[in-house]
Amino acid sequence: MFHAAYVFWFLVPLAMISLTVWAAFKRVFNKPGQEYPVEYGKQALFVLAAYGAYIAIDQTFLEPLVTSLTAGLFSPELARWLLFPFLLLLLCILGSSKQPRVQSRFTMQ
């Protein structure tokens, strides 16, 4: 079943893909900057994988799980809207990457 939350939360992976394309075009046209399209692409794939997991969880067992755990006190629709940010946060914590290969002002010691 299709939900408005799917469209809204697809804006996050779409923004990451747009950022990757923008960084790639900056390299193609030799514009100065510190953007690394490969790193942005990896992040876009990570967010797309989280989005796919979000839809899979929502389509398979989110509504019965929320209804049974909360005895109907918590709306499954609200859980649907909160699931993607929670899942993205959980995956970011569990799948923390190794030290970045690209030096930036945040990684310099």
Describe this structure in words.
- This protein has 109 residues and is an all-alpha fold.
- The chain has one domain (4-94).
- Helices cover 72% and strands 0% of the residues.
- It contains three helices and no strands.
- The protein has helices spanning 4-28, 37-70, 76-94.
- α1 (4-28) packs antiparallel against α2 (37-70) and α2 (37-70) crosses α3.
- The chain is elongated, with a radius of gyration of 18 Å.
- The termini are far apart.
- The model has no long low-confidence stretch (mean pLDDT 86).
Structural class: mainly alpha
Count all strands and give the number. Answer: 0
| Rg (C-alpha, Å) | 18 Å
Count of separate DSSP helical elements? 3
- Share of β-strand residues: under 5%
Distance between the termini: 49 Å
The biggest sheet, with number of strands, parallel, antiparallel or mixed sense and barrel status, is: none
Total count of domains: 1
What descriptive keywords fit this protein?
109 residues, mainly alpha, 3 helices, 0% strand
Could you give a quick summary of the protein structure above?
The chain has about 110 residues and is mostly helical.
Mind sketching the topology for me?
Blueprint lengths: L3 H25 L8 H34 L5 H19 L15
Helix pairs in contact: 1-2, 2-3
